[in-house]
Amino acid sequence: MGIYKAEAVVLRSRVYGEADRILSLFTKEWGKIAAIAKGVRKPTSRLRGAVQLFSHTHLVLYKGKNLDTVTQGETDEDFSFLQDDLDRLATASYCAELVERLTLENQPIPKLFRLLLAALRTLRWGDPVLVARVFEMQLLPILGYRPRLDDCVVCGRKRILGPDSQETGPSWFSIEKGGVICPDCVPGTHGARTVSPAALGAMAYFLRTPLDRAVRVKLTGGCNAEIASLLRSFLAYHGEVKPRTWEFFDDLHNTT
Ligand SMILES: [Zn+2]
Q1: How far, in Å, from the CA of 176 to the mean position of ligand 1?
Q2: What's this model's pTM, rounded to 2 decimal places?
Q3: Class of domain 3-78
Q4: Could you tell me the distance, in angstroms and rounded to a whole number, from the CA of residue 238 to the centre of ligand 1?
């Protein structure tokens, strides 16, 4: 014991001391771990590439009391292209922040590891706004917060989604109860809000379609804003998170 291997994505990296970095890693085998990479800011460091922000990497670590130490690393996929585009970088930072805040140390969630990698890979070509929306949506069932979209969360009455839908007006959604509500149950439900059929249809599509395919959908700005607002409230309520990157996103999109 003491030395172990891990396949990891670097979620966060901050400078420490004269030449070190402290990393938050999301590993396939061990979930989230905190580790130190010593001497990595020296130009001669062999670890440098392997512990770059967002790198998908194979590491050898040494178990420590508080922090584990990265002793070897080999980059599998380099996501440094993200540094060249502010919108892509913001989405990657956002996905990493959600993973960091919504998971516990030493709790492996292989599905989430694959989802994070799919998001980073899709950011090479996909619309970063859509990558963020689909990532948020697909994160929810993995963490046990799957929103119920096809029947009323209160009485169970079925509703039909998609192109065959008979519904033309808005539907109702309850953040607290975690899904759609039928008109009959609205009066008795605290905090019910309306949601358009287009937004509901897109959310259901995001839940059942692989990320790299789901991001090809065309979404109007209004529909994106509606889903973003609903998922923010959902994540804040069920995941108890308010990511710092939300403010950054707002600033970014208000100025462009
Ligand atoms: Zn109902």
Answers
A1: 15
A2: 0.92
A3: mainly beta
A4: 21
